[in-house]
């Protein structure tokens, strides 16, 4: 019984910090044609300058692991956009009052929000063919976000997000 409780607790804690990933791509694309990349020169990531640098370092590491080189004359450009938003609250406590008496009943229920609102960050990566000027792959990662964490924790979260998103590139057909 103790092991079951421990397993459920670990599963619950792991699900709280999960990075959710979505991706899409053009089915006609031959991904072997793309071996070099660069970033859009006028890219606005929506992140602070330090976080943008951390994220670009993480993307560079992931691309290098895949054998894709940074180049001044690339096969594709990467555009990165992000936004932060407050996740909807799902935790409520129901307080109910009701009564019955001789087939007459009634009740009132009130939902009271519990806990502080959670901030979420969504980062989208667009891969655009430089010759055709067409989007051929898009990945998006979403995770919880806290503004007041250390620089090391920020870097680790951004690296984990980049690793999870780019685990889906190139797509398996």
State the main characteristics:
two-stranded antiparallel sheet, DUF4136 domain-containing protein, six-stranded mixed sheet, DUF4136, 8 strands, 173 residues, alpha/beta, globular, single chain, Double Stranded RNA Binding Domain
* Helix fraction bin: 25-40%
> What is the rounded distance between the termini?
43 Å
Fold-level CATH name of one domain: Double Stranded RNA Binding Domain
Unreliable residue runs: 9-15
State the helix count: 3
Order of helices and strands: HEEHEEEEEEH
Strand order, largest beta sheet:
1-8-7-4-2-3
Protein name: DUF4136 domain-containing protein
Pfam family, one: DUF4136
Notes on the protein architecture:
The chain has helices at 2-16, 49-65, 151-166, and strands at 20-25, 36-39, 69-70, 76-86, 92-101, 104-113, 119-129, 134-145. The radius of gyration is 23 Å and the shape is globular. Residues 9-15 have low confidence and may be disordered. The chain has 173 residues and is of the alpha/beta class. α2 packs across α3 (151-166). It contains three helices and eight strands. The protein has a domain at 19-28 and 35-83 and 121-173: Double Stranded RNA Binding Domain.
């Amino acid at each position: 019984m103790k092991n079951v409780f421990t397993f459920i607790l670990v599963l619950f804690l792991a699900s709280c910090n999960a990075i959710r990933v979505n991706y899409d791509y053009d089915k006609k694309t031959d991904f072997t044609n793309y071996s070099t990349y660069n970033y859009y020169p006028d890219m606005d990531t929506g992140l602070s300058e330090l976080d943008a640098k951390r994220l670009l370092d993480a993307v560079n590491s992931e691309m290098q692991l895949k054998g894709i080189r940074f180049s001044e004359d690339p096969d594709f450009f990467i555009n990165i956009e992000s936004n932060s938003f407050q996740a909807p609250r799902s935790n409520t406590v129901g307080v109910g009052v009701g009564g019955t008496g001789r087939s007459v009943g009634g009740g009132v229920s009130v939902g009271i929000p519990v806990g502080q609102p959670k901030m979420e960050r969504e980062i989208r990566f667009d891969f655009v063919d430089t010759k055709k000027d067409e989007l051929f792959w898009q990945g998006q990662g979403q995770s919880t976000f806290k503004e007041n964490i250390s620089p090391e924790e920020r870097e680790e979260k951004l690296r984990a997000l980049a690793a999870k998103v780019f685990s889906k590139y190139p797509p398996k057909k």
